[in-house]
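The methods section describes the discrete structure representation at length, but only in general terms. What matters is that the chain and its backbone geometry are given together, residue for residue. Nothing conveys this as quickly as seeing an actual entry. For illustration, here is how one protein appears when written out as sequence plus structure tokens:
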Amino acid sequence: MEKATFGAGCFWGVEAAFRKVPGVVDTAVGYSGGHTKNPTYKEVCTDKTGHAEVVQVEYEPAKVTYKQLLEVFWANHDPTQLNRQGPDVGEQYRSVVFYHTPEQKAAAEASKKKLEGSGKYKRPLATRLEPAGEFWRAEECHQRYLEKRGLAACGTH
């Protein structure tokens, strides 16, 4: 098993998108990229912790590649938005790939460059690529949030 970590707006919808991917074994929503230890949802929402809402994906590389996970990431949010997705505004909603290995970093860089050159977006991509740091699991009420409510997506894009 390998891990991948993505921030693409509100983690509820991002988690739901990745849970549908064959080869994804597990997901967890949480916070990463900030300076506060063990932050709460309420703290992250103040926009003062530096954390992004993220989904940590555990996947089986023989069934789904990191490159395929990147495609899911790009397809499920607007990577040209800086610190916002749909109605959600704040640094915690930034577009970010937290890479765990040099191979993930190279794949993310290549994927971003390919998308930038595709002409799909008129504005530049705001997505950051950062080394994975501490992942702080969100409160249990946020895990599989949409699934628990019988919803397939947030409907923000």
